[in-house]
Amino acid sequence: MEEELLRIKNNAISLILEAKSKQELNEIKLQFVGRSGELTKIFKEITKLSPDKKAEVGKKINETKQIVENLINQTEAKLGEKARQRVAHNIDVTDPAVLPPLGHLHPVTQVIEEITNIFERIGFTRERYPEIDFDWFAFEALNFPQDHPARDDWETFFIRQQPDPKHGPVVLIPHTSNGQIREMLNKELPIKMLNIAKTYRRQSDVSHAAMFHQFETLVVGKNISIVHLKGTLDYFVKSYFGADRKTRIRPYHFQFTEPSFEVDISCGVCDGKGCKLCKAGWLELGGAGMVHPNVLKACNIDPNEYSGFASGFGVERVLMMREGLQIDDLRTLYGNKLEFLEQF
Ligand code: DAH
């Protein structure tokens, strides 16, 4: 009987290993462990044995059954995997094509487009001026005194080259205000310009990067007043941040505007009441003011006849100030991590 058991076991193993399909395997299963399978049958025969032998052979039959069943299960899994692979290789040309993943514009580019659209709606023209420019356009004509700290190489990047006799050294522009000068020298009045460009400063922390973007507005014409400035700021803030946001201008100092202001917007979290984010209900947006008479004069415009306003804000800053965005480090915008960028 033990020999018979061994024969059944060997037979079962070789058949299972040769099985080519699940169906074949099923048949083998029935042949050995099914209700009238060979192992079931032999089990019934142990009643003929003495009680001692009965226990011993019974145990062996159970072990054999276990081995055969395990092998069947393993083989079944393998055959299933093979079948799946066969299906995967079987390309159905009528299936809809799988499109490659599609990228999108960088969040900063998206915001630049949005800002452009907002200003174009009220008649501003987007201009582009050099991002590497002479000191004269970036500082001198903007009424910066020779010893102003921004003209120091601790604040501004200078290009190593001989200064131009007329326009001085060359800098990576620290602000987009050089565009004001180039616009006034190049264009007919009246002017309604939006200049967006890359700007550079020697700085790097959670709210500053050495390269960032600014957007600058300049309006010059007859009878341009602070009312126009405030109206334009209100319009931008409501269009970009939402209709319920308020704008406030606060006296400040810039070389190229007089009077000059810092522009604040009411906090979107507490609506101007004061909270952890804003402290006193307002968030700083950027600078603005009425074009300084010296700047108009440097551009051959008569300050008695014409006036203008200007403003300059950070693109990354307005992106980060947008409600619901919790970007805690400006530099992540330039980290090129897809996990971050794909959220926009
Ligand atoms: N250029 C200033 C800066 O980068 C921002 C600025 C302030 C621009 C006032 C303006 C202005 O046009 O009127 O800090």
Descriptive overview:
- With 344 residues, the chain is α+β, with helices and mostly antiparallel strands.
- The chain folds into two domains: 2-90; 107-341, 2-Layer Sandwich (BirA Bifunctional Protein, domain 2).
- It has helices spanning 2-18, 22-33, 38-45, 51-89, 107-120, 135-138, 178-186, 226-241, 293-298, 315-320, 338-341; strands spanning 125-127, 132-134, 170-172, 191-200, 211-221, 247-252, 257-266, 282-291, 307-314.
- The protein has a seven-stranded mixed β-sheet with strand order 1-4-5-9-8-7-6, with helices on both faces. It has a two-stranded antiparallel sheet with strand order 2-3.
- A hairpin with a 4-residue loop joins strand 6 and strand 7 (257-266).
- Helix 2 runs antiparallel to helix 4 (51-89).
- The radius of gyration is 39 Å and the shape is rod-shaped.
- The mean pLDDT is 93.
- Bound molecules: 3,4-dihydroxyphenylalanine.
- The site of 3,4-dihydroxyphenylalanine has 12 residues, from strand 8 and strand 9.
